[in-house]
């Protein structure tokens, strides 16, 4: 039985307007919310968008060994326009944080699940919009961590 490599991982939920970020503990057991970043859609073509620069700073600050980005796959398992955008974003992120690897993982329904869990806790409306991206990033990273542990048993 091989153990997964230790180290903090960051989970990323890429949205049109915001980017939710979560982090794992060093042992890869638990994902927790970290921050929500505003997407920088106005950066010059030759400049690093501020959200990617902020993500790179978080990778350095937390000494992350990997970044797990949620890939929006539709219920039929197909990659639509949103997935194309996320793949491009993940590619840009990989360039900015190299040599730290960027891994894409199926995030089907993560925002729906996150919204439901927040609503169950009484977080609704404007308060929910402020944290749903972080909560979705937690769902993405926690699912990935759980799958890694199952694979190594």
Automatic annotation (TrEMBL):
<keyword id="KW-0540">Nuclease</keyword>
<dbReference type="InterPro" id="IPR006641">
    <property type="entry name" value="YqgF/RNaseH-like_dom"/>
</dbReference>
<comment type="function">
    <text>Could be a nuclease involved in processing of the 5'-end of pre-16S rRNA.</text>
</comment>
<keyword id="KW-0690">Ribosome biogenesis</keyword>
<dbReference type="GO" id="GO:0016788">
    <property type="term" value="F:hydrolase activity, acting on ester bonds"/>
</dbReference>
<feature type="domain" description="YqgF/RNase H-like">
    <location>
        <begin position="7"/>
        <end position="114"/>
    </location>
</feature>
<dbReference type="InterPro" id="IPR037027">
    <property type="entry name" value="YqgF/RNaseH-like_dom_sf"/>
</dbReference>
<dbReference type="GO" id="GO:0005829">
    <property type="term" value="C:cytosol"/>
</dbReference>
<dbReference type="Pfam" id="PF03652">
    <property type="entry name" value="RuvX"/>
</dbReference>
<keyword id="KW-0963">Cytoplasm</keyword>
<protein>
    <recommendedName>
        <fullName>Putative pre-16S rRNA nuclease</fullName>
        <ecNumber>3.1.-.-</ecNumber>
    </recommendedName>
</protein>
<dbReference type="InterPro" id="IPR012337">
    <property type="entry name" value="RNaseH-like_sf"/>
</dbReference>
<dbReference type="GO" id="GO:0000967">
    <property type="term" value="P:rRNA 5'-end processing"/>
</dbReference>
<keyword id="KW-0378">Hydrolase</keyword>
<dbReference type="InterPro" id="IPR005227">
    <property type="entry name" value="YqgF"/>
</dbReference>
<dbReference type="GO" id="GO:0004518">
    <property type="term" value="F:nuclease activity"/>
</dbReference>
<comment type="similarity">
    <text>Belongs to the YqgF HJR family.</text>
</comment>
């Amino acid at each position: 039985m091989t153990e997964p490599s230790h180290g903090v991982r960051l989970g990323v939920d890429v949205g049109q307007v915001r980017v939710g970020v979560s982090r794992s503990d060093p042992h890869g057991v638990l994902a927790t919310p970290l921050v929500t970043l505003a997407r920088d859609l106005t950066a010059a073509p030759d400049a690093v968008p501020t959200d990617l620069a902020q993500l790179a700073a978080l990778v350095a600050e937390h000494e992350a060994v990997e970044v797990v980005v949620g890939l929006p796959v539709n219920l039929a398992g197909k990659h639509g326009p949103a997935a194309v955008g996320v793949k491009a974003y993940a590619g840009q992120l990989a360039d900015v944080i190299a040599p730290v690897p960027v891994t894409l993982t199926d995030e089907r329904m993560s925002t729906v699940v996150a919204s439901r869990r927040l609503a169950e806790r009484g977080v609704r409306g404007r308060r929910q919009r402020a944290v749903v991206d972080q909560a979705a990033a937690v769902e993405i990273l926690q699912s990935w961590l759980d799958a890694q542990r199952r694979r190594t048993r």
